[in-house]
Amino acid sequence: MEARLPVLAAAAALVLAAASPAYAQFQAGGVDKEGSWFVGEGLKQGDYFRYSMCHLEYKECVDFDMRLWIKGDIESGSETKWLAEAVVRDGNRVVKGEMELGKIAPEPTGGSEDLTIYRGAFKSSVVWLSAFATADTGSPGKGPKEFMAKSWGKIANIGGEQVVPVEIAQVRTGAGTWDSVVIGWKTGGEFSRVWVVDGFPFPVKAKTFAHVSEGIAPVEYEFELLEYEEGVAESPFGDVVATDRALAAAGCDTDIEKEATVKRPTNGFSYQIHAFYGPAEPVDGCPMEWLIKFISKYDETEFLNQVQFDMLVLGDDNRPMRSIADEEGRQFLYSPSGQYELDMVVKEGQGDVTYTLLVYGLAPENWVPQEVPDYLEIVVPVLPGQGGPPADPPETRPSTQPSTPPAPQPATPPAPEPPASVPSWIKTSTGLWVDGQVDDATFVSAMQFLIREGVLAVPATEAGSPASGGIPDWIRTSAGLWVDGQVDDSTFVSGMQFLIRNGILPVG
After folding, report:
1. What confidence tens digit (pLDDT) does each residue in 434-461 have?
2. Are 503 and 465 in contact (CB under 8 A)?
3. What whole-number distance in Å separates Cα of residue 335 and Cα of residue 339?
4. What is the dihedral of CA 390, 393, 398, 403, to 10 degrees?
5. Local structure of residue 5 (DSSP, 8 states)
6. Are strands 145-146 and 307-314 parallel, antiparallel or unpaired?
7. Looking at the DSSP assignment, which residues form a beta bridge with residue 275?
8. CB atoms within 10 A of CB 405
9. pLDDT of 476 strictly over 90
């Protein structure tokens, strides 16, 4: 196993260092701008927002994308609220649901259970200033806040700082350039900023820090407005299918318990890792969840801080075949506190799969650790998809030996391609669609997921422009014949290729 270290060390050396931002010190006291602002100012039906955001209480500020469309009013008891549709894209996961927002202060007070944790992050970041500035003009300390005011209020912790208008500034976000007022406060030795725009309901950008009595203050929340549109009359999320729904349609169990545990030192004894994961025997093509704790090798009660790491699947040449950090668009995974929740989809096929936790070292985010990387290998037995075929016999697997040029041979006709093979458990999901128990959008989303994750192998097919009219009836008929065993797998795969070529099943 020691042979892996040089390769892993070389991979770790590619992480780029980034300089820590410097923050100027500001005096409290308001800005030279007339007018006032409150959270929710100007919010109306048909508004569409898209934010990139994170919050310390959700995976220690791992970024996710939240899209929000104000659908209209909803009556809740004696109160009229805004009803918003929301879609969250969190790594490879898509969550879809509804949120109820108050009209006095647009804090989320209810909605779909699947959005609970994201609602909390939204409440504690994008609408956090509603603790000071709301439409409520009848309560002391509430109501709109003047830009010229010396203070908007005080942070409610020991030694909490005043929240004040700091400066007038232009700020650029993905949604454009805005004339804003910076609302700021100092805590934990860092200066927090929120950019608000007169007449616009939510802040357009923020970077704030958590209160700490000692040590480096971590980012508490950070967000940026990426898109904004007014007057959107119809739901922009009509074709979006939640990942959990697609997985369920594909036959996966999404009610996961982390029932297996591993507690061992890393290969070089640099760190101790306590990993919990579930299912204990995950299914190929289905989700798997991890809780990873990085513990001091000297004290089992002490968590390590600022851990840079990755989850890899290595090939026989010790080179990464899969990196979870890469799939999430990151150079590495990062845990400020030493505890990390990781969600993934199993893609490695049936059999014993070795997942390698590679620890780059301990350093602030975007800094290069000075330690030699170390790793822990965890072998997990992976089951085939429900009712799926056994693993390929050894003689049909690609050779892992270095390739050498073959000796010249007489020309021979190319061998025919092997017939298409589709895991048989996919028939169960397709049968539900054929029988009308799931709709077209769910079926298409499930097929997209299976093709994208490599569970359903479809030959390379040029994608066409999106077509109108939906799935032709003959595709459903053909799929029904396949489910009943009257046509072969190749016929079903040909149907999927037709949907790709005609833009009905986009897989790009």
Report:
1. 888 778 887 887 787 777 766 677 777 6
2. yes
3. 6
4. 160
5. H
6. unpaired
7. 262, 292
8. 5
9. no
Closest CA to 162 of 22, 39, 56, 30: 30
Within 10 A of 165 (CB to CB), how many other CB atoms are there? Answer: 25
Phi then psi for residue 129, to 5 deg, are: -65, -5
How many whole angstroms separate alpha carbon 96 and alpha carbon 86? 6
Alpha helices in 77-222 (DSSP H): 116-123
Strands (E), 363-500: 374-382
- Residue 59: what residue type? K
Q: How far apart are CA 428 and CA 248, in angstroms?
A: 11
CA-to-CA distance for 106 and 273, rounded, in angstroms? 42
Asked if residues 279 and 288 have their Cβ atoms less than 8 Å apart, the reply is yes
Whole-angstrom Cα distance, residue 93 to residue 345?
Answer: 10
Q: Mind listing the pLDDT tens digit for each residue in 293-307? A: 999 988 888 999 899
The model's pLDDT over 1-23, given as tens digits with 9 standing for 90+, comes to 444 544 444 444 333 233 333 33
- φ/ψ (deg, to 5) at 321: -95, -20
Highest mean pLDDT among 18-22, 92-96, 122-126: 122-126
Q: What is the pLDDT of residues 228-284, one digit of tens each?
A: 999 999 999 998 989 888 888 888 888 899 999 999 999 989 999 999 999 999 999
Tell me how far apart the alpha carbons of residues 504 and 470 are, in angstroms, rounded to a whole number.
Answer: 7
Residue 349 is encoded by which pair of tokens?
Answer: 């096929």
Q: Which residues pair with 207 in a beta bridge?
A: 193, 222
pLDDT band, residue 397 (cuts 50/70/90): very low
The whole-angstrom separation of Cα 232 and Cα 244 is 27
Please state the φ and ψ torsions of residue 335, each to the nearest 5 degrees: -130, 105
Residue with tokens 């790709």: 500
Residue 453 pLDDT: 66
- The burial of 52, by beta-carbon neighbours within 10 Å (0-12 exposed, 13-18 middle, 19 or more buried), is given as middle
CA distance 311 to 130: 39
Residue 244 and residue 483: Cα distance in Å, rounded? 23
Whole-structure pTM value: 0.67
CA-based torsion, 28, 34, 36, 40: positive or negative: negative
Cα→Cα distances 391→153, 360, 382, 386, Å: 64, 34, 11, 13
